[in-house]
Design brief:
Elements: H1 2-42, E1 51-55, H2 61-73, E2 76-79, H3 99-105, E3 125-131, H4 139-146, E4 154-160, H5 169-177, E5 181-182, E6 186-188, H6 194-204
Parallel strand pairs: 1-2, 1-3, 3-4, 4-5, 4-6
Helix pairs in contact: 2-6, 4-5
The structure holds flavin mononucleotide (FMN).
Flavin mononucleotide binds at residues 57-63, 91, 93, 100, 131-135, 160-164, 190.
Length: 205
């Protein structure tokens, strides 16, 4: 009889261990799933969009093109603003002493950014736009590209100007950034149409 009781006890113990084991492994796999979901969430942007349009615009022309690109590509928008905003006098290219002229004369100048930093987590493509100042990107664009890591991100420069092409601006930005897969840039005039912008975007694919 004693033997029977001890056999039953052993049986119950074995069942108990198996059940506990299953619970533990169920818990472990639930933890794994939660961890994987958290990792996946960290790879995603808050909006769930994976394209970002970054732009600086002193008088609204580049902003207009940036908004059209964002609408066409269903992208998020991020505006770079200067901590010390540019006044009309600052932008006077006829004045050799204006702030913009002096900044463009010195490639080492890095104007401070005023807008809150943006997280690039989850973005795979970034369109990066600016006006042409004295044939190049405004120095604040160099401040921006030197502040972020663009590893594994496709970087697509675009600019607006009165007549100049994009020149070496894209190369300058790529060199100063030191990371990212930079494509050739494109120049647009004021009031570029949605059709013109769309056909450029399609030409990139
Ligand atoms: C300081 C300064 C320098 C400029 N230099 C050039 C230039 O070299 N070539 C050009 O075609 N346009 C030049 N422009 C005109 C702007 O590139 C053009 O108006 C641009 O579309 C403005 O964009 P935004 O409104 O986004 O600031 C210059 C404008 C400023 C304010």
């Amino acid at each position: 009889m004693k033997r029977w009781i001890s056999m039953i006890m052993c049986g119950l113990l074995a069942v108990g261990i198996t059940v506990c084991g299953s619970i533990v492994s169920a818990e472990t796999s639930a933890e794994d799933t939660a961890e994987a979901a958290a990792e996946e969430a960290a790879d995603e942007t808050q909006s769930g969009k994976d394209v970002l349009v970054v732009y600086f615009s002193a008088t609204g022309t580049t902003k207009d093109v940036a908004e059209k690109i964002a609408a066409i590509t269903d992208a998020d928008l991020y505006e770079i603003t200067a901590a010390d905003e540019y006044s009309e006098d600052d932008l006077n290219w006829n004045d050799s002493n204006s702030r913009s002229t002096k900044e463009q004369d010195d490639p080492s100048v890095r104007p401070e950014i005023g807008s809150d930093p943006v997280s690039l987590e989850g973005y795979s493509t970034i369109y990066i736009g600016f006006p042409i100042w004295w044939g190049e990107e405004p120095r604040i664009m160099d401040t921006f590209v030197e502040s972020y890591d663009f590893a594994d991100i496709t970087m697509i420069p675009f600019c607006t100007s009165s007549s100049s092409g994009i020149g070496r601006s894209g190369e300058n930005l790529a060199e100063n950034a030191g990371s990212g897969n930079w494509l050739d840039g494109e120049r647009f005039g004021a009031g570029a149409s949605e059709e013109e912008i769309q056909s450029w975007i399609e030409s990139l694919q």
